[in-house]
Design brief:
The protein is α/β, with parallel strands linked by helices. The chain has one domain: Metallo-beta-lactamase, Chain A. Helix content is 27%, strand content 26%. The strands form 2 sheets. A 7-stranded mixed sheet has the order 6-5-4-3-2-1-14. The protein has a 7-stranded mixed sheet with strand order 7-8-9-10-11-12-13. Helix 4 links the parallel strand 5 and strand 6. The mean pLDDT is 97.
């Protein structure tokens, strides 16, 4: 059995759990260790299963818990070299390693594949994780889709997919102009429409579970997101992640 969970998802912290009966990894650790343990306890997930953390990019909401969590759990944190050197020292784990783009990293029977994405960071990556015969995508903080993302998305059985903002809410909202431009740029975030377009055009028949992630607290609402995707409810199991609480633990069976 494969279990996945968004322990945190939003601009105040991101952390995604992917595991099986014996092992698990985290993608990003943008919450502090104490909060991580609280949310693991809430969901019934076992911290002792976690064997490594993979960092997507150096922004604080993705890496601020790296140093302490690594030390407390006795596990390595993996960065790209450029991301590691761009991190503040307080966010660099003592026990660390480097991953290479498009090169799988294997922890027992969990294979982690990092691939490039568009975001305003030094060397940002998304991930596709192969576990128990399933492919899980972690695809957030992306300014635009491209052939690489489309291809990796098309392999997924389940995906944490950014649906950050509603275009009308962003353009008519209170953000200053430069921030509106940053969010909607090719190095910003995916809108509801962009994420929906990815699902409608590149999902394969094996995609069953979508966890809509990194939902803006200012330029989006859960109600708007639900309305955007309502016509897909009969086709997919769709969940909305939260910045304030751990999401549901989703159990995925073996691929038939």
């Amino acid at each position: 059995m494969t279990e996945i969970c968004a322990l945190a998802s939003g601009s105040n912290g991101n952390c995604y759990y992917i595991g099986n009966e014996e092992k698990a990894v985290l993608v990003d650790i943008g919450i502090y260790y104490k909060r991580l343990i609280e949310r693991l306890d809430e969901t019934g997930l076992d911290k002792n299963k976690i064997k490594a953390i993979f960092i997507s990019h150096e922004h604080t909401d993705h890496v601020q818990g790296a140093r302490v969590t690594s030390k407390k759990l006795g596990i390595p944190v993996f960065y790209s070299k450029k991301t590691y050197h761009k991190c503040y020292d307080k966010n660099k784990a003592d026990n660390f390693g480097f991953f290479e783009t498009d090169t799988p990293y294997v922890i027992d029977n969990i294979k982690i594949l990092p691939f490039k994405k568009h975001h305003d960071a030094a060397d940002p990556h998304s991930f596709r994780i192969e576990i128990n015969g399933l492919n899980i995508g972690i695809m957030t903080d992306i300014g635009k889709t491209d052939d690489i993302l489309n291809n990796e998305f098309s392999k997924c059985d389940a995906v944490f997919l950014e649906s950050n903002y509603d275009e009308d809410m962003l353009q008519n909202g209170l953000y200053p102009y430069h921030l509106k431009q940053r969010v909607s740029s090719d190095k910003g975030h995916l809108s509801n429409f962009q994420a929906l377009n990815l699902v409608e055009n590149f999902a394969s028949p094996q995609l069953k579970t979508i966890l809509l992630s990194h939902i803006s607290a200012v330029n989006n609402t859960h109600e708007v997101v639900k309305e955007t995707y309502k016509h897909l409810k009969s086709k997919y199991d769709i969940f909305l992640t939260s910045r304030h609480n751990a999401g549901d633990v989703i159990s995925l069976g073996l691929k038939k």
